[in-house]
Amino acid sequence: MIRTVQSVPAIATGTPESSVGAGLLIGVYALQGDFMEHEAMLRTLGADTRQIRKPQQLAGIDGIVIPGGESTTIDKLSRIFGLAEPLHQLLQQGLPALATCAGLIYLASHVEDEAPGQQTLACLDVTVRRNAFGSQLDSFIMSLDVDGVGEGVPAAFIRGPVVTEVGEKARTIARLADGRAVGVQQGDIVALAFHPEQTDDTRLMAWWLSLVRAHSQQ
């Protein structure tokens, strides 16, 4: 059961128009994790989605979502299916990305407590620590202020990581009350230690889609 540690106003504090993602094709990394929840929210906002399991499915997408799950499993499956290198290249070329929980770990340049043999795409100038909030039984929802999005954004933490160091290329967009970073941005890459897709508040996803649209129009 997920506990609530701060009151969150109805978990539905924002209602972006359903057309905010219209005309955008968003890839959703579908090797493992809660990709279906991300797909549902993207479609609610009007975006088209494509599940990504093969390298050729990366062609033509406007942005990609890398969902939560288990970071070591995502890493292993990405290499097995030949996705790691082409995805790394696209991100280096500026493909917008939204990475949540394990996705944040998978993009990070450094992992303090990596598992033996664990690899990341090293596209994001941050250091992270895995499972910073305990086991799945310790999951909780709280509200956060997110730069660019607004106040009172509900955030579900489920075995989430924490950002222990933010490099020069990235910036912090969300912090806990104790100052720890749980949301960062580097260009059009947004990476979160929490799960926005586990709530009904679409503001954060809509904001990221606005970055994707701006990038597609460059």
Q: How does this model look, in words?
A:
The chain is α/β, with parallel strands linked by helices and 218 residues long. It contains five helices and 13 strands. The chain has a seven-stranded mixed β-sheet with strand order 3-2-4-5-13-12-11. It has a three-stranded mixed β-sheet with strand order 1-8-9, with no helix packed on it. Strands 6-7-10 form a three-stranded mixed β-sheet. The longest helix is centred in the last third of the chain and has 14 residues, at 203-216.
Beta strand count? 13
Taking strands numbered 1, 2, ... along the chain, how are they ordered across the largest sheet? 3-2-4-5-13-12-11
Give the amount of beta strand, in percent: 25-35%
Alpha carbon gyration radius: 16 Å
Based on Cα principal axes, name the global outline: globular
Count of alpha/pi helices:
5
Order of helices and strands: EEHEEHHEHEEEEEEEEH
Rounded average pLDDT: 89
Largest sheet: 7 strands, mixed
User: Termini, distance in Å?
Assistant: 44 Å
Q: What share of the residues lie within helices?
A: 10-25%
Structural class: alpha/beta
Low-confidence stretches: 1-16
